[in-house]
Automatic annotation (TrEMBL):
Gene3D superfamilies: 3.30.420.40. It comes from Stigmatella aurantiaca (strain DW4/3-1). PANTHER family: BIFUNCTIONAL UDP-N-ACETYLGLUCOSAMINE 2-EPIMERASE_N-ACETYLMANNOSAMINE KINASE, ROK (REPRESSOR, ORF, KINASE) FAMILY. The lineage of its organism: Bacteria, Pseudomonadati, Myxococcota, Myxococcia, Myxococcales. This is Transcriptional repressor. It comes from the Bacteria.
Amino acid sequence: MAQLQQEGLIERMASTSVRRVGRPETALTIAASAGVLVGARLEPKTIRMVATTLAGEILAHMQIDGSRNVRRAITLLQKGIQELLTQAGENREVRGIGVGIPGMMNREGRLVLAPNLGWRNSEIRPMLEENLNAPVYVDNDTNAASVAECLFGICRTVRNFIFITGHSGVGGGLVLDGRLYRGTGGFAGEVGHLSIVPGGRACGCGKRGCLETYVSEASILARLEELGRTLPDIWAVAEAQGDPKVRQVLDEVGTHLGFALSHLVNLMNPELIVLGGNLAVIAQLLMPTLKRALAEHTLRPLLEDVRLEVSPLGADAVPMGGIALALEGFLTSSVVMAEERSQRRG
């Protein structure tokens, strides 16, 4: 820790919470001025980014066009980060870049399948590091967002919760006894592929009736198109809430989501369900039908244990998850390097 302090990566703060006789207590904190972190969410149509200090203070955020072509997406991300840092007025060193991707990442960090992007068996991290002048950390988007809720959001003291997000697809992060549950291969949390309507709408995964074909932003916009109402994004849906067709679709979404969540509650007995990402934009509009369906299909003792909340991170939940990935990676590598330097000197 002394080595990290000498390098300006951590600093001491005098404790003012409790006064005691004698020498004042001090606490270690990350030095906000020691660099910048960047978090990003890659989607088929958009890339959303945020820049923060090492302490997690947001400096700037922005959204740009995305691409299904992996090389094109990386080029767009590279240019976007440069614009983001210019917007933030920052020239400090970028200490890490964390990227959340809507796909199945194995425990070795390899992207096995991202059906909505059309990517399969890709070594995304090396490709990103080849083009971005900073260490890169990659994870499933919803897993990353779940970690962000633990660090920056409303789950700092919650040990059992489910995080649900919906963009091009729907993802779930499962936190059990304070730890993110990844499953045997690292693929746990594919909530969007729970079958809620047997033989229903075709999904990009090759199956039918998956939750994300009814609840994701893309499916909501497509359903509105079927009803003759064209809207550009989820924010426009929220603004048009008074439209009868929009209200009809929101009620359908709430019912489907509540039904799916009831199975997770019956299985996991969580304390909290958090709606984040683009679902957070319409969450309050879904609550009446969502809660009704959840209550209808959940065992009462389990229903009494759980509460529903909207993530304060909103649409930045996944980019802030990228920040969490980058922060963890940066601190881990900094400690390792500091120990190695200390050993060489000793």
